[in-house]
Every structure is written in C-alpha cells, then in structure tokens.
C-alpha cells in the first residue's frame, strides 16, 4: 500500500509523473542501446580490439547511469518519494557519480585514441587499453567515494526521488570538491576532446575526405552536461535554492540523456564498431573499414 507522503516543494503530482516518465523513457532507451553495444562487443569476436574496448567501457559506464535513472524513475512513478533511506540515497548518488566520471573520462580517451587511429596510424595496444581503463574506473570510484567520507555531501535532488551531490550548501567543502571535479572532469576532458578532434578535422581536410563530423562529440557532451555544470558552479557563489526546483530537476534529467547520444555516436555511429553491432543484430558478417593514409606516410 502507498504510505502517506507529502509532495516535495514546488512539484505537483503531475510534475512527479512527468519527470518520472522522462527518466523512465530516457533510462530505458539508453539501457537498450548500450546493452546492444555491450552484447555486440562480447559476442562478435572480431570486434574485440583495444580501441573498441574503450567504447565497450563507455557503454558499461553509461548503462550504469541508465540504471541510476531507472531507479529514480521507479521511485518517482510508484512512490512519489525515496523509499530506501539515507544510506540508499548515498549509494545511489555514489553509483551515479562513478558512472558519470568514468563516462566522461572514456569520451576523452576515445578522442585521444581516434587521433592515433586516423592521424598517426599508431595502433593501441591491449596493455595500454587495459591500463587506461583500470585507472579511469579506479579514479572514478575514488572521486565518487570522497563525499561519503565528508568532502562534499550526497543528498536528495529537489524532487526527493533521486540523489546526487548536494549543491545547495555552497560551503567550502562543496566549493573545493566541485572546483576539482570541474577541472579534472569537465575542463580537462573537454580540452582533450577539442584538441584531438580539431587535429582529426585538419587531417580530414588534408586528405579531402571527411569521414564523420568531428565537432559533434564535444558539442553533445556540453549540451547534456553544460547546463547542469553551470548550475553546480553557480552554487559555489550564489544560493542554488533561488533557482526554481523544476529547473534544478530538469538539468539532471537532461544530463541523464547523455548515454543515449553516446550510444548513437560511439557504438552505432562509429565505423569501427557499428559493423559488429550490425553483425550481432542481423548475423551478417562485417568487413573492417580501411583508414585512408596520406601518401608518403
């Protein structure tokens, strides 16, 4: 039976349903697409290259974020509140934060690897791919665990059906933690992506063959995470509670659509990966794409 509950401030029953439905649709779509990406990698042997291993790891991080969104959707639609207590809230936020930090790190690593795939023709070794992946997951877990021991705090989002970093306190702990995250997990990855994709773009111009749009990956990352990040940075200097609860809720919902875009871009839209996905779905054998090289290289 439904326990008595009060709706969070600024939200009607319909709002809870609408946000819950948005989280459900985004979570299911992302889960479905990333599951296909993961299963294709596991089941199609010739897909298992070091470069594709990075894309596979990205899909694993993203499916974790989808699960996180689905838990929030379930709480929103069926309970209208968070039924798993403060510990459940901290675990939920920790899982979400680990997924996000790993996902963004793999986006930057894939950009770096693509530069070598297309421009320098240096092959990625398995040992490097494994080492990078272990480091990325390790760092993501460490950075996400820090608020559990008191640097930054995990608490409920305005709708009180999901949990994240509490940006409403705006104290020194929050400011220093958020500042570190912004540098290491937004500015640095965005710089790596921009410089590598710019170099690939210049190379495509040189060989007069644009194989794909090099500006999209960074734009997608900034579209999904930029608004939420701006609010988190604003909370370092101003009172985030002055921002309307619905807007504060809309931003993480938008951010949680990132795994859908990533699946399209990096699995279904990646010439080295989509053939394997196609083979997994249809059974038709795929042939490796050939990268054009400049003469004399």
Automatic annotation (TrEMBL):
Keyword Transit peptide included in the entry's annotation? no
Give TM segment ranges: 16-42, 54-79, 91-112, 124-154, 174-193
Location relative to the cell: Membrane
Instruction: Name all G-protein coupled receptors family 1 profile domain ranges.
Output: 33-266
A Gene Ontology biological process in which this protein takes part is: visual perception
Q: Does the keyword Transmembrane helix apply?
A: yes
What's in the keyword line of the UniProt record?
Chromophore, Disulfide bond, G-protein coupled receptor, Membrane, Photoreceptor protein, Receptor, Retinal protein, Sensory transduction, Transducer, Transmembrane, Transmembrane helix, Vision
InterPro entries, alphabetized = GPCR_opsins (IPR050125), GPCR_Rhodpsn (IPR000276), GPCR_Rhodpsn_7TM (IPR017452), RPE_GPCR (IPR001793)
A GO cellular component annotation in the UniProt record: membrane
Query: Known Pfam families for this protein?
Result: 7tm_1
GO function terms (MF aspect): G protein-coupled receptor activity
Q: How does it sit in the membrane?
A: Multi-pass membrane protein
Major localization class: membrane
Record's function text: Receptor for all-trans- and 11-cis-retinal. Binds preferentially to the former and may catalyze the isomerization of the chromophore by a retinochrome-like mechanism.
Instruction: Report the protein name in the record.
Output: RPE-retinal G protein-coupled receptor
What species was this sequence derived from?
Oncorhynchus tshawytscha (Chinook salmon)
Q: What is the name of the gene encoding this protein?
A: LOC112235714
